[in-house]
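U., I forgot to send this yesterday:
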Amino acid sequence: MKLLLDEMYSNVLAEALRTVDVDVSTVIGLGLAGRSDPDVFAAAVAQDLAILTENVADFTRISADHLTSGHHHPGVVVALSSRFSRRRAGIGPLVAAIGAISDQQLEDRVVYLQHPQQP
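Result:
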């Protein structure tokens, strides 16, 4: 799995994901900090990276517009802030939830993460 972490996520999460063999890039690491969501989405598409975000409204709209215009994207993974904390204590559950979908085909999909113990 190849992910681009939206800028709300820390490098601590990136490092934790790398320890479980997730290929991770960050918005900050790619020099996209402060850029618009369409710019971040375009960079993810260009580099074949699914986006991990909690910004449901913008990225679901951007991905739908992209598909409607006849293009494909590597996927959008949504970690709702009501389910996953970005604080240090929330890193483990977030990594586990990402691990639970790591073998899924994400192309052209918006996937909402669930805690591994939830159906």
